[in-house]
Amino acid sequence: MRLILLGPPGAGKGTQAARIGAEFKIPPVSTGDIFREAIKNKTPLGEQAERYIKAGELVPDELVLGIVKERLAAPDTAQGFLLDGFPRTLPQAIAFDRHLAEKGQALTAVVNIQVDPEVLVERLSGRRICRDCGAVYHVATKKEQHPGVCDLCQGQLIQREDDAEATVRNRLAVYAQQTAPLIEYYRIAGLLLTVDGAQPIDDVYRVIVAGLRKRVEQ
Ligand code: AP5
Ligand code: MG
Questions:
Q1: Which residues surround ligand 2, an ion (CB under 5 A)?
Q2: What does the pLDDT look like over 27-66, one tens digit per residue?
Q3: Domains and CATH numbers, the chain
Q4: In what order do the strands lie in the sheet with 127-130?
Q5: pTM for this structure?
Q6: CA distance to 9, 57, 193, per residue, from 184 (Å)
Q7: Ligand of minimum distance to the alpha carbon of 8
Q8: Is 206 one of the catalytic residues?
């Protein structure tokens, strides 16, 4: 299964990616997580990406395409993958289609998680992530068992720097301008599966899994 998760900042892409990946035994690949890891480790990639991410702007297409191609060359993606946060611009989507075609591969589906912008601001201001493994929590809707400590790896929970409200508003504007056009792009390609992301996490998950199973059986 080769999947893309599409949706605005805070829609629940990372939350759902972890579960869907486990369900279908495909690795979730988050470009945002790759960049955050590179920034944490102060690698050349991190140094190049940091100023864009801090400002809530997109990292240049060429840089993103390079890391995605490299990641999808790894053997664990042989049976498929689940992309979270890529593609995010029309040039990225077009280049990625070309890349898959060269490899004789095709996408199975593009899951579009829809959520109202005001809900997104609230979600992102309450989000906490694990500094070590990137697991996602929320102060009201997805609490950790022991305060400030990741349930999965005991890492420290922190707030993402780009979750400051002004940066969130810019990320939402960037999404509307540069990423939202991809919905139509994938609808025309017959790949789009749109789900209501305002429901509780478990319900969103069930709807996505049911939709994907139906599509695979067709
Ligand atoms: P990225 O890390 O991809 O951030 P994003 O797209 O802004 O999305 P988020 O991770 O903020 O939200 P999410 O949809 O994953 O929601 P989550 O599950 O955490 O990218 C960061 C930056 O990297 C970009 O701004 C850009 O600079 C750069 N970048 C990355 N990819 C790029 C690309 N392709 N091109 C160029 N630049 C790129 O959930 C949010 C919160 O809500 C959590 O607290 C969660 O617990 C809660 N929640 C989730 N679902 C529900 C629910 N159903 N009900 C209630 N609460 C919920
Ligand atoms: Mg995410």
A1: 14
A2: 999 999 999 999 999 999 999 999 999 999 999 999 999 9
A3: 2-217 (3.40.50.300)
A4: 136-138, 127-130, 157-158
A5: 0.95
A6: 18, 22, 12
A7: 1
A8: no
